[in-house]
């Protein structure tokens, strides 16, 4: 392994750089985020003097219950929900499992058909496969070339047996924002529930459950700069689920297992910070994103933007470079201390092209030539300059070597 990649170049305080060494450029916030130092500070007492099990009937347990419920209220406030509409899980994957499998199991009598958008995270596609094996009918709703799901395309798949539709708030890959309000309005009064995976959008876009009639909403702690390994599921009052995890009956019986109190307190601290900083942070990230997009499209020939030109996450710039492999680009950038992604980190170990890019109509070789830059809380304007100092030359060099690129 490259020594420099592990150790970084020059020492720098973690709190200033979000864990990077100064000089290194981390633009893969979609894959993982550092925990905000303010969050770590809030969590620390809950490992030691404020430990406790909320199920205990003594004072230590009471204090733990108080911290748990305060945290629930803070996470609920971020999305305009009531505290009792939020339960904590071990992460977004578990929230997605509980939402889809729990809803399907509890509402079997109403129907056996589920619609999942084609541009969802791999967890939802694999849950869809599981439901299909269990005998449900699972339909896919295709996106347009920008990764956007047209509510009419979803409507055309709904039958009398449809019980649930699952569409993410925004794509974690190409960054396209979905028309969730229009989808929710279209489904209002039909008896079909709407599940939204909001992981890619949380902390970046305002999410308000009083304004949008979503029934189930998945959140992740780390995507708010909270600790990894924790998530939440919003369950609108009146929405019925069957438990998927059996045990001691915690979290209204829907998610048994002793609560991870330090992480829950951390997610709450992260939610408070996100709520306060969101408008300014979204504007800051949008400016960096747009500067990178403009510079790449102006400077590098045969480069294209994947995803929607305007309806996109403030922190996402996703490109396709004709004639070269995203992997080679990623490795060349890694040599320069710039860390990016070719797509969803969760499936990056397979050689398959991204299902999201293919469903947007890209050819396999086009999908393979894609690269994703995601900015975050510790990104700086200078990061864009660092990328533009090296990317045009790297692209030119790789194209020179590529039998696929015939324009040099
Ligand atoms: N949904 C989306 C949109 C994601 O990007 C991810 C991965 N960060 C997940 C779900 C799954 O999250 P986790 O691996 O933390 O359970």
The string of secondary-structure elements, in order, is: HHEHHEHEHEHEHEEEHEEHEHHEH
What strand order characterises the main sheet?
2-8-7-6-5-3-4
CATH H-level superfamily of the largest domain: Type I PLP-dependent aspartate aminotransferase-like (Major domain)
Instruction: Name the structural class.
Output: alpha/beta
Radius of gyration: 22 Å
What is the terminal-to-terminal distance?
33 Å
Number of strands: 12
CATH class of the largest domain: Alpha Beta
Query: Biggest β-sheet: count, sense, barrel?
Result: 7 strands, mixed
Total tally of structural domains: 2
Total helical elements = 13
CATH topology of the largest domain: Aspartate Aminotransferase, domain 2
Query: What are the bound molecules?
Result: 4'-deoxy-4'-aminopyridoxal-5'-phosphate
Low-confidence stretches: 1-14
- CA-based shape: globular
Calculate the mean pLDDT score and round it.
Answer: 93
Q: Which strand-content bin applies to the residues?
A: 5-15%
CATH architecture name of the largest domain: 3-Layer(aba) Sandwich
Helix content: 25-40%
Write the layout of secondary structure elements.
Blueprint: H1 3-7, H2 14-17, E1 25-26, H3 37-43, H4 59-78, E2 86-89, H5 92-106, E3 113-117, H6 122-133, E4 137-141, H7 151-155, E5 162-166, H8 180-187, E6 193-197, E7 216-220, E8 231-235, H9 261-299, E9 303-305, E10 316-321, H10 326-335, E11 338-339, H11 355-359, H12 364-368, E12 370-374, H13 381-401
Parallel strand pairs: 1-11, 3-4, 3-5, 5-6, 6-7
Antiparallel strand pairs: 2-8, 7-8, 9-10, 10-12
Helix pairs in contact: 3-9, 4-9, 5-6, 9-13, 10-13
Bound molecules: 4'-deoxy-4'-aminopyridoxal-5'-phosphate.
The site of 4'-deoxy-4'-aminopyridoxal-5'-phosphate has 12 residues, from α5.
């Amino acid at each position: 392994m490259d020594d420099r990649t592990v150790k970084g170049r020059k020492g720098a305080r973690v709190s200033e750089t979000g864990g990077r060494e100064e000089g290194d450029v981390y633009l893969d916030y979609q894959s993982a985020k550092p925990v905000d130092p303010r969050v770590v500070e809030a969590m620390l007492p809950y490992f030691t003097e404020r430990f406790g099990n909320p199920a205990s009937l003594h004072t230590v347990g009471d204090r733990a219950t108080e911290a748990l419920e305060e945290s629930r209220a803070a996470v609920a406030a971020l999305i305009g929900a009531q505290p009792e509409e939020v339960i904590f899980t071990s992460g977004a994957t578990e929230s997605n499992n509980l939402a889809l499998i729990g809803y399907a199991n509890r509402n079997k009598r109403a129907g056996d058909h589920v619609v999942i958008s084609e541009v969802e995270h791999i967890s939802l596609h694999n849950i869809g496969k599981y439901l299909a094996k269990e005998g449900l009918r699972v339909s896919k709703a295709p996106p347009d070339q920008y990764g956007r799901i047209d509510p009419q395309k979803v409507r055309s798949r709904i039958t009398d047996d449809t019980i649930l539709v699952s569409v993410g708030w925004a794509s974690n890959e190409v960054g396209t924002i979905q028309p969730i309000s229009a989808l929710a309005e279209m489904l209002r009064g039909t008896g079909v529930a709407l599940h939204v995976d909001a992981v890619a959008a949380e902390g970046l876009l305002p999410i308000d459950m009083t304004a949008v009639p979503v029934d189930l909403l998945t959140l992740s702690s780390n995507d708010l700069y909270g600790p990894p390994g924790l998530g939440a599921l919003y369950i609108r009052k009146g929405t019925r689920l069957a438990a998927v995890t059996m045990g001691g009956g915690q979290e209204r019986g829907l998610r048994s297992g002793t609560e991870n109190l330090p992480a829950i307190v951390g997610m709450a601290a992260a939610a408070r910070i996100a709520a306060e900083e969101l408008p300014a942070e979204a504007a800051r990230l949008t400016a960096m994103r747009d500067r990178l997009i403009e510079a790449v499209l102006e400077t590098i020939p045969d480069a294209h933007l994947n995803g929607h030109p305007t309806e996109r996450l403030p922190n996402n710039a996703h490109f396709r470079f004709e004639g070269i492999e995203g992997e080679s680009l990623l490795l060349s950038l890694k040599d320069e201390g710039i860390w990016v992604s070719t797509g969803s980190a969760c499936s990056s170990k397979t050689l398959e092209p991204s299902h999201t890019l293919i469903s947007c109509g890209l050819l396999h070789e086009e999908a393979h030539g894609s690269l994703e830059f995601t900015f975050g809380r510790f990104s700086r304007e200078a990061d864009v300059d660092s990328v533009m100092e090296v990317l045009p030359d790297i692209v030119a060099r790789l194209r020179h070597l590529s039998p696929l690129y015939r324009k040099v």
